[in-house]
Every structure is written in C-alpha cells, then in structure tokens.
Amino acid sequence: MDVTKTIADETVDALMAAHTETMAVFNAFGVDTCCGAHRSVRDAASEDGADEIKLIAALRLAISGAS
After folding, report:
1. Percent of the chain with pLDDT over 70
2. Which of 4, 13, 20, 40 is most buried (most C-beta within 10 Å)?
3. Mean pLDDT (the chain, rounded)
C-alpha cells in the first residue's frame, strides 16, 4: 500500500492484498470485495451504503491489531 495515500483513497483490492485482515471488515460493512474491489474505499463505501467514517475506523483497527 502506498503510504502517501489515505485509506479512503486506497483501492479495496490493494488494501486487502496488503492487509488480508481487512477482508472481514469489508464483508461486515457490506462492501463488494469481488467485482467492486477496484474502487477506492471512499467510493466503495458510498456506492455500497457503508458509513465511510466507521468503515475507515474499523479498517484502521484491523490493520493495527494485526501488527
């Protein structure tokens, strides 16, 4: 994952590739991790009806918990 990008700007698939623990978070929030994985986290949250702020907080927690 490019450290100059924020989580919101990273694509779903790039984030899952770098941090496999995020897949469970995306699934819990109803974010499409298959056909929609090419979208940014921001776009995926918006298009899939997930709360972006809560999604990003959960992603950060999953990533920090795996470290």
Report:
1. 91
2. 40
3. 91
Query: Residue 1: pLDDT above 80?
Result: no
CA distance linking residue 65 with residue 48, whole number of Å: 25
Bridge partners for 11 per DSSP: 40
Contact 8, 40 (CB under 8 A): yes
For residue 8, what is the DSSP state?
G
CA separation for the pair 18, 31 (Å, rounded): 17
How sure is the predictor about 36, in pLDDT bands with cuts at 50, 70 and 90?
confident
Classify burial at 20, counting beta carbons within 10 Å of its beta carbon; exposed 0-12, middle 13-18, buried 19 or more. exposed
**For the chain, what are the domain ranges?**
7-66
